[in-house]
């Protein structure tokens, strides 16, 4: 019994020692963890302090040396702009009508003329038509808005042969502002019909077209049907158009058209007709020079003829006054 009791006491003491060891060890580990945390905090504080001190040193060093320049900003690249929007595309008229460009031009063409009354649209349309025929092509189809304003009227004229007064029917231009919208609609229908029929591979539209909506539908319809469309812009000078206007449109009407003029969209292909107009101007000058030279030659010929007539008359007078003896070769000296 005593041995058992002693054994139990020793066991209790052992367990108590182990508990004390365990408890003391736990406290030791807790203290060690706390010490590590404190060292980490102190390290952070010291490192941040050293960082602040280094920054202070750098700041103080900037006072002696200039600060390094800032890095340049990254380059900016402008987004590429399509050629159709950046610049206006134009084709020379001789490249369409004359060789060698004529051989490679589109098979079907449409030229839309734009310009105020008196700007020369009808004249240019005729020039293009004549040049196309001269180069061996078929005559283009010309659709003009002015044709819808032509009305038949009766005029009393004097017959040059009999001298009597006779009544004749003539076509005259009479502008009606109230009918212009209706006539433009009729012109559009005629244009569509001409395109659909396919008889004319070359079409010219002669119209004021001062607003884009007046010709945009023609442009789109012709493009859908496989035509290459060109825009031809005429001179829009009010004073010049007023002088050349033959349809009795007032200067106020022309000025109002120019005031409401809209620019041709940049994606529309244009045609440059200046060379054609210059060639016509040169031809007219040459014709005037030739006419002047012919007039001078005729005047010189007339002068020579008059001199010859005068000389013949003088010879006849001398013959009349020569004595009969001189006629027979005798001299009375």
From TrEMBL:
It comes from Cryptotermes secundus. This is YLP motif-containing protein 1. The keyword Acyltransferase does not apply. Residues 1-22, 28-43, 50-62, 317-333 have a biased composition (Basic and acidic residues). Residues 1-84, 286-333 are annotated as: Disordered. The keyword Transmembrane does not apply. Residues 286-316 have a biased composition (Acidic residues). Pfam families: AAA_33. It is found in: Nucleus speckle. GO terms for cellular component: nuclear speck. Interacts with PPP1CA and NCOA5. Forms a complex with ILF2, ILF3, KHDRBS1, RBMX, NCOA5 and PPP1CA. Its main location: nucleus. GO terms for biological process: regulation of telomere maintenance. Residues 66-83 have a biased composition (Pro residues). Keywords: Isopeptide bond, Methylation, Nucleus, Repressor, Transcription, Transcription regulation, Ubl conjugation. Plays a role in the reduction of telomerase activity during differentiation of embryonic stem cells by binding to the core promoter of TERT and controlling its down-regulation.
């Amino acid at each position: 019994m005593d041995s058992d009791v002693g054994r139990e006491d020793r066991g209790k003491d052992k367990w108590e020692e182990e508990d004390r060891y365990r408890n003391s060890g736990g406290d030791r580990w807790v203290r060690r963890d706390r010490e590590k945390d404190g060292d980490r905090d102190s390290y952070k504080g010291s490192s941040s302090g050293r960082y602040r001190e280094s920054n202070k040193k750098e700041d103080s060093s900037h006072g002696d040396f200039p600060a390094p320049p800032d890095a340049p900003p990254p380059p900016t690249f402008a987004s590429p702009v399509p050629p159709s929007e950046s610049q206006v595309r134009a084709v020379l008229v001789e490249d369409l009508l004359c060789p060698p460009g004529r051989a490679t031009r589109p098979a079907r063409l449409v030229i839309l003329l734009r310009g105020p009354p008196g700007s020369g649209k009808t004249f240019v349309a005729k020039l293009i038509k004549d040049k196309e025929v001269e180069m061996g092509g078929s005559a283009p189809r010309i659709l003009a808005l002015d044709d819808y304003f032509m009305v038949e009227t009766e005029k009393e004229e004097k017959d040059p042969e009999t001298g009597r007064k006779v009544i004749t029917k003539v076509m005259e231009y009479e502008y009606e502002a109230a009918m212009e919208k209706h006539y433009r609609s009729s012109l559009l229908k005629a244009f569509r019909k001409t395109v659909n029929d396919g008889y004319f591979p070359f079409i010219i539209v002669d119209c004021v077209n001062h607003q884009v909506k007046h010709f945009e539908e023609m442009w789109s319809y012709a493009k859908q049907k496989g035509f290459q469309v060109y825009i031809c812009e005429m001179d829009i000078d009010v004073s010049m158009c007023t002088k050349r206007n033959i349809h009795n449109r007032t200067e106020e009407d022309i000025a109002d058209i120019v005031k409401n003029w809209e620019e041709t969209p940049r994606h529309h292909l244009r045609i440059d007709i200046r060379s054609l107009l210059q060639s016509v101007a040169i031809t007219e000058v040459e014709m005037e020079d030739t006419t002047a030279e012919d007039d001078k030659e005729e005047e010189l010929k007339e002068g020579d003829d008059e001199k010859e007539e005068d000389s013949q008359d003088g010879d006849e007078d001398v013959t009349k006054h020569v004595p009969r003896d001189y006629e027979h070769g005798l001299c009375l000296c």
